């Protein structure tokens, strides 16, 4: 995997970078995605996992939310214990989705991404620095552990994907308000799942 830490100014830039890197590829593997965003980029990796879980045509593929959950769990867990270069197993990196579906799903997000980027700005920075990052990582680990269950509870994976997207954006833009909204969304999604299963 690539050792670089990629820098992104916002969601639009990340989506365009992904689109350019995967254009014309028959099967888009997790290895290619990680190589594109950088294997030391916690925020972008979270954001990618969230976007893929949310994206039409991609997140609806059976097993995709679980694979994203494994990715998030491995990366978040390694961050919590102090690693800054993330190791991922080869069998996970080889998982792939149809390139056409991936491209259509990513491009569908371009318009909302431009609107979201206009709202991003550094604020409540303590929530996304130091101990705040560890809190985000621990919360994302809990989300990841629940991903397999979310495949059988309608719409719950969307809540998880949205939360991961918010956390990823929060870390990229140093926007603690988005992290705060992400924590609230996790609480709401957990309540929804408990209600659906009760």
UniProtKB/TrEMBL annotation:
Pfam families linked: ExoD
Key words, A-Z: Membrane, Transmembrane, Transmembrane helix
Source taxon at top rank: Bacteria
InterPro entries for the chain: ExoD (IPR010331)
TM region positions: 127-147, 153-172, 177-197
Protein name in the entry: Uncharacterized conserved protein
Organism in which the protein naturally occurs: Modicisalibacter xianhensis
